[in-house]
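Q: My labmate handed me this sequence with no annotations at all. I'd like to see what the chain might look like in three dimensions before we decide whether it's worth expressing. Could you predict it?
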Amino acid sequence: MRFQELYEMVMDGLSEGMSLEDIAKKHNVDIKDLEKELEMGIEVEKEHFKDNVKMQRKTAMDHLAENPKYYSKMKECGLD
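A: Here is what I predict for the chain of 80 residues:
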């Protein structure tokens, strides 16, 4: 698979077209809590995407679209 194909596949993830506010509404959670999760997520995703802030944020948003406590749960399990 070419890099461009992989990039496009990732960019069409679960949060495609969604704002953080949309994700908060989807899961009926407070936006402030989700902002904290996003900050944690961006830090975690730096391990995978080094200097690519756009991909760090996009990946974190995709995980939060799936589960608004994704990164807190990772931390609880010692997987962060």
